[in-house]
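Researcher: Next sequence.
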Amino acid sequence: MCHRVDAVIDPGDLVPELADLCRAHEIVGAAVGVSIGGERSVAVHGVTHVGTGVPVERATWFQAGSVTKAMTATAVAMLVADGSVGLDEPVISYVPEFRVHDEHATRAITVRHLLTHTAGFDGDVWPDHGDDDGALGRLVAGIAHLPQLSPPGRAFSYSNVGYAVLGRLVERVVAAPFAAALRTMVADAADARLEVDVRRLDPGTFAVGHLRGPEGWAPIEGVQGPACLAPAGSRTWATVDDLLRFGELHLGRRSPQHHEALVAMRQPHLAVPDPNNGGTMALGVLLDDRWGSPVVLHDGGVAGQSAYLRILPELDAVLVVMATGGVPQVFHRHVFRALARSRFGLEAPAAVAADPSIVIDAARVAGVYDATATRLELRAAGHGIEAEFRWRAGSDEVSSGWLPVRAANDRVLLAPFGGRDLVIVTPPAAEPCDHVLQSLRRVNRRAG
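Model: Next structure:
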């Protein structure tokens, strides 16, 4: 039985720099948690809403974002362990309505492909199919137009729709809506509370996402994403303790009967060439070997909120950062580095940095790279290159403007945007630059 710590400790005792880091990175509200040997400590700072000034508390709900993908994968792993699902079985064996544009891919895509983001179809879209329990089924029945970017199993490309399909698989196998399955299979096993609709939360108990406006950080009116992408992380709510408990589940502390299945999720599958995201894709989680002790991780960001989960199996430890507003992509790294040093004597990795000595081959990489929801153009500029990112949602399109690009190594390019670097990963130099990974999403080079 693990020991539970219920009091919020002085933030200075857990992360002495927390207040300074929040100010430096313009974080509106944050909760930081650590579990070591089942003993949990939490520190909080800031407010849940700049308009109300309600302070963040230990019990404040934040959005988990794409950390939900690790939860969806956990549910699938449990179904694999009990024999209900086969990792290498075609998805259509469990979700017969599943179709993408390529008929061969439709038949070939397996459960493992979806878990490892290697199904190959363009899954970086953000549709809305209503707000009821049927939304997920309608999404999966309506993706036959999505093109194939690479053959199934061949290459990595982060896929929100792929995880929506996995959520539909869970629904069909257990004969329950995804939200109910998440609670009964994952939340109950972790002794955690997970909600997939803000309307189930009491007013004033949850943090609101914030985006920068003309007069500073402003709360977002639409506080959660579409129901059809819930398994990918569009609307999962949790407290910092709930994410710590979920991490403890993966350490075998919560549900021993599931431990073997969850350990199997850590099996490495393929390299992820973006150094800011762990380096290796496993079954629904990423792996990072740069801390000095193995780390299992997932990050999430949605509607102006962010969540970061780090599980250190050899140290029986879990670290969590949840935040709203500001530049959490930089903030969380400083928090984890402080915790790694003070708690374990480890050196957590810093974000990849530009190397001014590297000259980018503009002739090789210049061009337009396009996918359903993303367009990237790289062009020569003086002695280097610059990039313009365009993000599409329905008929709306947002442009980054032209950004200077620097190289971190022979494959990784960095474009500063919003206080952080957008990462572009090119193929190895010996291969043609027919695609790039932009924020983990594959975008293919436009012909001509």
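Model: The longest strand covers residues 396-407. The two ends are 63 Å apart (CA to CA).
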